[in-house]
Amino acid sequence: MIEPETDQVITSRTAVVDGSVVGTGPVAEFGARDSVLARVRAKLPEFTGALQRVAEHILSDPAAAARSTIVELAERSGTSPATITRFCRAMDFEGYADLRLGIAAETGRMARSAGWTVDIGREIQPTDPLSRVLGQIMAADTQAMHDTAALLDLAEVERAAASIAGASRVDIYGASGSALVGGEMQFSLHRIGVAAWAWTDIHNGLASAALLRTGDVALGISHSGQTRETIEMLAEAGSHGATTVALTSFPRSPLAEVADIVLLTASQATTFRPDALSARHPQLVVLDLLYIAVAQRTHDRAHAAFQRTAQAVAGHKTAREAKP
Predict the structure, then answer these.
(1) DSSP state letter for 199
(2) pLDDT 10s digits, 15-58
(3) Same domain, 246 and 187
(4) How many angstroms separate the CA atoms of 241 and 32, rounded?
(5) Lower Cβ count inside 10 Å, N or C end of the chain?
(6) Rounded to two decimals, what is the model's pTM?
(7) How far apart are alpha carbons 87 and 13 in whole angstroms?
(8) Half-sphere exposure of 110 toward its Cβ, with a 13 Å CA cutoff?
(9) What is the CATH number of the domain that holds 105?
(10) Which domain holds residue 221?
């Protein structure tokens, strides 16, 4: 099938895969340990038409894509060899051979690390035993963790941690599942003496954001980066001088555009768990890293606060039975 050549994609940048630089763009947007499939997934919203079909086909069965010739991949994705070539360039590969080798190397590592990871993406059937369902969930979440580690820019985490450690107050914004993740971060920071608030209501969040000032920090959480309320609250905080941090899976999303610091996550959807739900564990991993980085920078204060808060609630725990 020959499709109209009307695809659009924002120019991507170089990345490093298995220690080798690929592409000819400016500074790499993704991490040095970047996953090819994670890059495709992160850039998927930027593609339209035929390029989008190529990306979706690769993500649906990366092992088959790695075995396909350029003509076979074009036929299976309902596109043309010319589109496959454009897709390679959009992903900063010089040609199809480089893309194919990158995918093959990644699927090979997945298969060697654990046999069940090759089933990632398989639909969970109503008759599947729980042992298989558990394997699917573990496979998807484990791969999402690895992809997140590949995408995450640790220098950005350092910047965010330094900002939070020196902040007078921290606002955290999120909706739905992201609100739950934000609540976990607020609780963790509060336990080590960081004045943090988590806001889910747009009116209360905007009112709080309007009171922030230079030196304060605002953290917006959204897997898609397109949640309007979260974008508005983060933008309001930034307009008053607060340092703004976005936690999202899409580096060119509206939320990322209004943030000073962007922390990226990846996800692996499974049956009954679309991307927004499957992103929760990777989000928690990144926020745990950020929280510990803050605690490191405020060690004495954090340790003292943690001890006092632990002591304050100790009386509400069930006493252990005395040993005979």
Answers:
(1) E
(2) 333 333 333 332 233 333 458 888 888 888 889 899 999 998 89
(3) yes
(4) 31
(5) C
(6) 0.68
(7) 13
(8) 27
(9) 1.10.10.10
(10) 151-312
